């Protein structure tokens, strides 16, 4: 399909953004980080165009197969970055977001997973459930990336080794604030999406694989947010757990979505 | 008018402070000194720069030899001293003089390479001369070009990056831990000179609340009064430490004042926020393994000094790159100057645009 070209362009844009972002991290020029933001915003425009065209073509929210789901998932990550970056003066996070988004999109484009599905009528509740859950995962992703930036800065401060990244990365106070706020937002959105799923009448049998996976992910983050609220966890451990939780999501997302019955509809043609 | 741009004077590189202090100019003396210097040196335009590290003049003249010869005499007369400054004074003429001013403005010739205070001092010296009608088109253009050149060097190199004293490195680290230091509370343990300087640096960057604890309460009181803080009795410092974000210690205790065990107990009573510990004492006051605790950042005097030295080394490696950035600025000024004299053809070979 022609729409894939837009995703290809977006992916190329993320690759350039990733390269530039990493250069900007070490360049000691604050203006360089603004360029990272603009490059990502341009790639995001192509990414959005792809989702729009695909949505129009299939008459559904474009999450009908794994390819579309991955593209929507990475789109949520970038969308969160584009909101969090200017809001917290954290355009530097683009250097961490772009490589992850590039890898997800690259995998989506390279793997033979763009198989057309004959979707049953989803209904707005089901679409909202799925999009909110994916958006929540995107927000949790940015929290994890802020966690990575926090851990890098914290390590430099602990080891007394100040590289050029030390000057470019924000202070640990701001990083932990952003990381924890975004984490809570991600959890709230993901929870809303996940719980909405329980109230949707199912035409087929329950998708226990997906439900179990979602329950595990939700419980992990619920525990993290709870301990955070209690004030018992150090900032470092919060960041580490946020990153570990997200690595778990990234590693299992593919498998779960392949196994999940809800996303395996009869192939057309 | 064909003018020679010249400069000369005494710098810390050649002249010890015992001599420099004899001929330093106070700000209030500058207008009179400029007037007298212009007459004695035969300058059409003049700027006099007097800082802790240098006493230098910059001028536009038609008689560069006279200026060079008369400078030591001017210093002797104005300051009523008998020392002979001729062998200690440098004299530059034309391109090297322009390069010198641009390098000085960029902090390349400062004792602490890359320091930015010199640019402000040059601006002040130039303003005084300008306001008193001692500058004209040659020096106006020269100084304004030097400020632009310095700005360019600052923004395009790492020459000013990283702090090079224990106090300023501590501030830099504190800012990377807490961000804004506005709401930070500091405790000084032991009223030593280095800890006082470090506390002052932090105060200069927004810290509002300072507690001072010392074995001798009177000394704690005296330092607290000077810093605008509160004195704390020695028996109470551990209790009060719960309130603070930054602790600076420089006691002469032969053992650890703060052990890991003590700090772990203290952290339990404290809100969950980072703690920055600055240990300036030898032998050390804070047990080193404290640094292994989460959200605690411990730096001893060696750590801070090694960061400061590292920054200084990095700045020195930026000098060559800075000189390359200055070159087009120097060329532009020279091209402008040649144009003012009616081009190289109008030059009799003795103008300031030819290196002397």
Explain this structure to me?
The complex is a heterodimer of chains A (269) and B (356). With 269 residues, chain A is mainly alpha-helical. Chain A contains nine helices and no strands. Chain A is 78% helix and 0% strand. In chain A, helix 5 (123-159) packs antiparallel against helix 9 (235-259), helix 7 (172-198) packs antiparallel against helix 8 (208-230) and helix 8 runs antiparallel to helix 9 (235-259). Chain A has helices at residues 3-27, 30-58, 66-87, 94-110, 123-159, 164-168, 172-198, 208-230, 235-259. Chain B is of the alpha/beta class. Chain B folds into two domains: 4-159 and 318-346, 2-Layer Sandwich (Beta Polymerase, domain 2), CATH 3.30.460; 166-309, Rossmann fold. Chain B is built from 13 helices and ten strands. Chain B has helices at residues 17-20, 30-41, 64-79, 95-105, 117-131, 137-156, 166-178, 193-203, 217-227, 237-240, 260-268, 301-317, 319-340; strands at 4-11, 45-50, 54-61, 90-93, 185-189, 209-213, 230-232, 246-249, 275-279, 296-300. In chain B, helix 11 (260-268) links the parallel strand 8 and strand 9. In chain B, helix 2 (30-41) packs across helix 3 (64-79), helix 4 (95-105) packs across helix 6 and helix 4 packs across helix 13 (319-340). The A-B interface holds A 28, 153, 157-158, 160, 162, 166-167, 170-174, 231-237 and B 158, 161-162, 173, 175-179, 271-272, 274, 291, 294-295, 297, 299, 303, 306-307, 310.
Looking at this protein, list some descriptive labels.
heterodimer, A: 269 residues, mainly alpha, 9 helices, 0% strand, B: 356 residues, alpha/beta, Beta Polymerase, domain 2, Rossmann fold, six-stranded parallel sheet, four-stranded antiparallel sheet, 46% helix, disordered C terminus
